[in-house]
Amino acid sequence: MFPIAHNPAKRFLQTHTWFSALPADQQAAIEAQVFTLTAERGAVVLPALERTQGWYGVLRGLVRISGRATAGRRSDFLGVAEGEWFGEGAALKNELRRYQVVALRDTELLCLPSATFHHLQSSNLAFNQTLVACLNLRVSQAMAMIEAGRTRSPEQRIALSLSRLFWSRTRQLDLTQDELANLAGMSRQTANRVLNALQGRGVIGLSMNRIKILDDAALTQLLA
């Protein structure tokens, strides 16, 4: 078993209730089965059209989940921050990954192998409740991204990229303006203009590559 004080994988797993509720021997078995993947900023850590190895969590860093480029255009889906899981759909269906995962900063992923994932999915209620919550979130995110790409203004797309729909665990986001523009699918100049306008209205605060949400209600109203 990993020493919790010195191993980020152990600390990460313990923050999730489905894992912390398991008996000690099951926790130890899972700790022995998980493995990590690392990538430098800008690298593709998980290519498209490869069979998934399991369910992935972000130990540190930030990743962008994107569709494969077609005719010179990129289709961005969403960002996944430190502490979050992703890839449950591909893991459940054991299919080829339909998207690529790119590190927006130096990143380390934890992988819960497919065999372990499916064993927990078939035997553990708390794990299934977590999966249902993740899948429900993905459906909401997918619908929001479809709408944003078709009808939303740059201000609304930035608001969506900052909203609780995508960053439920924290309201102080360690994102550079380049990273946010990348996730929102716009130029840095446009993102900078929108962010400054939102700051001027007291919706957010900007300082040292950090975006702090000051008024969640106002941010949500922009999306109404």
Strand arrangement in the largest pleated sheet: 1-8-3-6
**Class by alpha and beta content:** alpha+beta
Number of separate strands = 11
Give the low-confidence spans.
none
Beta-strand fraction estimate: 25-35%
Task: Report the radius of gyration as a whole number of Å.
Answer: 18 Å
Count of helical segments? 10
CA-to-CA gap between the ends? 48 Å
Q: Report the principal-axis shape.
A: globular
Biggest β-sheet, characterized? 4 strands, antiparallel
Q: Quaternary state, please?
A: single chain
- Spell the H/E element sequence: HHHEEEEEEHEEHHHEHHEEH
Arithmetic mean of pLDDT: 84
Helical residues, percent = 40-55%
Q: Helices, strands, pairings?
A:
Blueprint (H helix, E strand, L loop, with lengths): L7 H7 L2 H4 L3 H10 L1 E5 L4 E3 L7 E7 L1 E9 L2 E9 L3 E2 L1 H6 L5 E5 L3 E7 H10 L1 H27 L2 H9 L9 E2 L3 H8 L3 H13 L3 E4 L2 E4 L2 H8 L1
Antiparallel strand pairs: 1-8, 2-7, 3-6, 3-8, 4-5, 4-7, 9-11, 10-11
Helix pairs in contact: 5-6, 7-8, 7-10, 8-9
